[in-house]
Every structure is written in structure tokens, then in C-alpha cells.
Design brief:
This protein is α/β, with parallel strands linked by helices. It is built from 17 helices and 12 strands. The longest helix is centred in the middle third of the chain and has 45 residues, at 294-338.
Amino acid sequence: MTDTLLFAAEEPVNSEAGLPPWKVLIVDDEESVHRVTQLVLKNAYFDGRPVELLEARSAAEARALLEQHGSDIGLALIDVVMETDDAGLQLVRTIRQELQNEMTRLVLRTGQPGQAPEERVIHEYDINDYKDKTELTGIKLKTLVYSSLRSYRDIRTIDHQRRSLETVIHAIGQINQVNSLSLLASAILSQLISLLNFEPDAIYCSTRRIYRDLPRFTVLAATGNMKPLLDHHNQQALVQFEENELPEELQTAFGQALAEKRSIHTDQGYIAYHSGMSGAESLLYIKHRSNIDEHGKHLLEIFSADVISTYHTLLLKEEIQETQAELIYILGEAVEKRSKETGAHVKRVAEISALLASAYGTNQVFVENLRLASPLHDLGKIAIPDAILNKPGKLDAEEWQVMQTHAEIGESMLRSSDRPVFQLAARIAGSHHEKWDGSGYPKGLKGEEIPLSGRITAVADVFDALNSARCYKEGWPLEQTLQLLQEQSGKHFDPQLIELFEKNLDSILAICQRYPD
């Protein structure tokens, strides 16, 4: 039987909305004990929440309830003598050792104190109190439950704060490894939920940015009822909304904060406003079930300012990275267009190279750097005369010798930078015309002497060059291109990369469709 009881000496009050009752487990084989306990604890509250009384008449029943509810049970009042003389003592060991429950407060009650002397029991068993049933008057029972639940509440709070601190420290350690603002924002907002120590109904964070004179709300993270506003299918993308596309409650809340240009507390939620150096206005909206005290408001102000500042910093970092990538593509495409070749070639080579690098098992940093660096594989062609670069027919021996110099020229141009991406691009430029059997140029490297970045880019470059129309040829049929790659496995190309290419052909063809000429 399960009864919900009210616990406090004062006049009953309504439970705070959404807060669960305190669970108290009564373990005793005497029916009269259960009836008296229910009578004593009638019409009482603790900390604004009711008490749910769980009843067990044996250690076995108690174990089943403890396995079901776990450490959500705040207090267990346990009889020592039940189906056996030490059933209660063994139950204590089960709770602490087998069930690994350190949270629930355990109080032993006995009507036969001689069976289990108090000093020995308290010393040998992990309990919080030991009482003779004859001394537990109505007032003392209320006091015992009151103090035990207060202890349980404080222990849960400390444990909650400890776990929150661990999570925050872990998140801080991961900040430099996060490539997406939405992923980092979600992680930070999860910490905010934990640190607030209350149950938020929904949390939503957005940044209002001005782009080409059009207002946009960019969703950085969302939880609860706001989750549909975040694109879960593509966590690398930031989702943007017009102001009138947002839920009505957000339009109202954001409109007030933007109009007054300040953070606002209401009975329904909290809106943190922050104006960045770039002119962007950021808003953090938290909807909660109950009012936040002044300490909580102060914590929110500090935390929100730091969170939004972090967003702006990472946004600036992401914009710099995107600008760098865009400039690299523009430079690579400029070289391709000068040789009257397709500008989309460099994008396809970049994506195919990244795909092959990932399939090869390289780390994500290498994959992303290769995606950025591979578009510069033919940078040295900028120094090749137009008459040779755009000759429609076959080059003669002297012209071919000049054409081959573009590999060393590109490497020389790029290696002057100490940036990792350009150092990698230099290796690619200087090695993507080397061949697995050593017959390539400019250095005649063979096998694994050729940098992996050069071997990968070589496969992507040759495949796309053959598959695409150039000034001196038509594009090959796919079957013919694949046949050549297979024939050149172990000669021109790394055999393992050709095997990976064939296994991932569908994804590679999807890249070609995504970046058409």
C-alpha cells in the first residue's frame, strides 16, 4: 500500500508545482506499526513538498522497492527483527553494499534492543540512527523524519554540485575541440541547468545577428519544448529564423529585452541580454516553474554574461576559420579557372580527400586540415605560362618539363608559412604527382615515402580530372575512370586508398553531385 502524507507541524501548504514528493520507506512486519506511523505523519509537509509513504512488511519486499526507486527514497525506517532475527541488519548491508545506495538515510527501529545492542550496531553498520520503538513518541517520530529528510536533501545537493563541477571541468577541457557552436552551446546550457539547481521547463539560446541588413535569430542551443528549433539532423549547422518565425512567447520576451536593451526577470522566465562588440545582440531565454531567488538571479546574470561572451568569441573564431577556408577555395579556383578548368574541381577534391582520410582512420584534425589544404594542390600552376597551361594538344618534352615545375613551385610558395594548414598544403603540392612505384615527380618518391596527404589528394585529383571535361579532353565515363584507378593500384596509387575509394564510391559520387561544374 502507498499513501501520500503531508509532513510538517505548520498549517499545510500547496506543494510547489512539479516537485516530486519525498519518499519514506517503512519496513516492519507488524501491521500496527504501519497504522501508527500513518496516523502520526498525517497532514504534514517538509520543505514545501509532501511525503510519499512506501510500505514493506519484509526485507525482501523492501529490497524490491529499493531496487525500483533507488536513491529517490530519502529515508528508510527499518525494523531489526522480521522474518529472521537480523533481517533488518542484513537489509542495511544489502542497501549499502549490493545496491550501492549511499544516499538514502537509514534508521533502525527495534522493539527488542537486547537482540542488537545499539553501540555494536551503530559501529558495525552504515546507519544514520538507531531507535527503540518505545521511545519514538509521535513528536519524536516527526522530528526524526524531519531531520533525516533535511540530511538527505543536503547530501543530494552536495552530490548534485559535485557532479555539476565534474561536468563543467570536463566541458572546459573540451572547448578547444568543439568545431560547432551549436554543440558547445548545448554543452554549456546543460551545465547551466545543473548549476541552477532547479528544474527548468525549457532553455533556449539564440543570437540576433545583422547580415545584409536582415535581422536573423541564429539558434545556438535549445532544450525542452524549444528542441524543435534546433536542427538535430545537422549538428554542424546553425539554424536561422526570421523574428516572426519564432514561437509567440519568444517573440514577446525577446522583443521586450531588445527594446529595453537589458536582461529581464519575469514570473515565467528569465531573458539575458548581451550586446557584443560586433553589434550583434544575444539573448538567453530560460523558462522556469517557480520564481528564482535573488541569489539565483545574480548567478544567472554572471553565468549568462560569460556564456554569451564565449559564444561571441567562438563565433568570431568560426568566422575567421570560414573566411580562411573561403579564401583558400577562391585561390584554388582562381588557379583552376586560369587553366580553363572547372572551378568546382577544388571543392570536389577537398571533400573526396577528407572522406578518404576519414576512411583511412586518420584523426579528425588531419581530416579537417586536409579538407582545407588540398584545394591548393596545384597552386604552382600560377607560374606556368598560359601557352603551356592551356595548350589543347599534348605537351612536347620541353613543355612537359616546364609543366612539372609547378609541383616544386607550389611547395616553395606554401612552406614559407608556419601555419599547419599551409605546411600540409605545401606537402600536398610537392607530392601529389609522386607515384606509388616511384615513377612520379618531382622527387621520384615511392610507397610510403610519399606523404599520406599527397597520396590521398592524388587519388581524388586524378579521379575528378578524368571524370570532368577539360580544355584538352572530354570527361571520361565513370566505368572507364574506375577501371584506370584499379589498373593503377600499386603503380600510380596507394592500393589501400584505391580499396577505400571503391568501398566509399556511393559517398564520393554524392560529393560530385553536390558540387557540379
